[in-house]
């Protein structure tokens, strides 16, 4: 990511373009909306293979653990303090 682009700008761009595309895929998705918040984690080049495996097996993985459970684990693993009242709002 360029140093002149903020994480908030990039997330807004991704959410906007992906929701516009998604809404063109099915009439049942015309009311789709992303949640207001997001989480952003940096990944070093040495972790890309593990990240790709995680993404590839995400559907399988979420059969045993919800997204919320997985997100809490990530926050804890990387020492991020958070308040539940503001994470899922």
Structural class: mainly alpha
**Gap between N and C termini, in Å?**
27 Å
Tell me the number of helical segments per DSSP (H or I, 4 or more residues long). Answer: 5
In total, the number of strands is: 0
Q: Over the alpha carbons, how many angstroms does the gyration radius reach?
A: 15 Å
Strand content: under 5%
How would you sum up the global shape?
A: globular
Helicity level, as a percent range?
Answer: 40-55%
| Unreliable sequence segments | none
Task: Fill in the keyword field for this structure.
5 helices, mainly alpha, 89 residues
Task: Please tell me about this protein's structure.
With about 90 residues, this protein is mainly α. About 50% of the residues lie in helices and about 0% in strands. It has five helices and no strands. The radius of gyration is 15 Å and the shape is globular. The mean pLDDT is about 90.
SSE diagram, text form:
Blueprint (H helix, E strand, L loop, with lengths): L6 H17 L24 H9 L1 H4 L5 H11 L6 H4 L2
Give a quick precis of the structure.
This protein has five helices and no strands.
């Amino acid at each position: 990511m360029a140093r002149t682009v903020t994480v908030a700008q990039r997330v807004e761009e991704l959410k906007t373009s992906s929701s516009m595309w998604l809404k063109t895929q099915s009439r049942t998705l015309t009311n789709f909306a992303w949640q207001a918040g997001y989480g952003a984690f940096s990944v070093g080049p040495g972790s890309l293979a593990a990240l790709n495996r995680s993404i590839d097996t995400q559907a399988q993985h979420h059969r045993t653990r919800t997204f919320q459970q997985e997100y809490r684990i990530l926050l804890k693993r990387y020492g991020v303090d958070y308040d539940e009242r503001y994470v899922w709002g």
